[in-house]
Amino acid sequence: MKHIIHYTLRADGPEGEIIEATVPEEPFAFSGGSEEVLDELEAAVTAAEIGDQFDLLVPFDKAYGPEMEGAFAVLPKAQFVDDDGFDESVMAEGEVVVMRDDEGEEVHGVVIHVGEEEVEVDFNHPLAGIDLHFSVQVMAREEA
Predict the structure, then answer these.
(1) Predicted confidence band at 21 (pLDDT cuts at 50, 70, 90)?
(2) Three-state SS annotation for the chain
(3) Domains annotated on the chain, with CATH
């Protein structure tokens, strides 16, 4: 079953900062059981009727977990130098970098500081440690 919803996602409660939002003219669609959305959100949408509106608070431990101290890394700036040198635009604070872990898996990090010799990167999920508040309207359902 494909669920079609309009939603606003806020950090830490109904008055929190908006993280993302759809507009009714361009709703979000996801397939049930596809792991595209958090389990709690999928369960609430599945239980609701078409046209229903509801609020849902998903605590961080049921969303993306706590922010972990060990997910920060200070890496030598030389690690990011190629034939063209150090790319300041790619390695600026707030930029997302893609690296590989020891098993060769892709990991995404956010640059949080660029120093003279080192770059500090946060490998936590961007929503780690944040309670997620959804305001949802179920727009439609379609057979997958």
Answers:
(1) very high
(2) CEEEEEEEEEECCCCCCEEEECECCECEEEECCCCCCCHHHHHHHHHCCCCCEEEEEECHHHCCCCCCHHHEEEEEHHHHEECCEECCCCCCCCCEEEEECCCCCEEEEEEEEECCCEEEEECCCCCCCCCEEEEEEEEEEECC
(3) 2-65+127-142 (3.10.50.40), 69-122 (2.40.10.330)
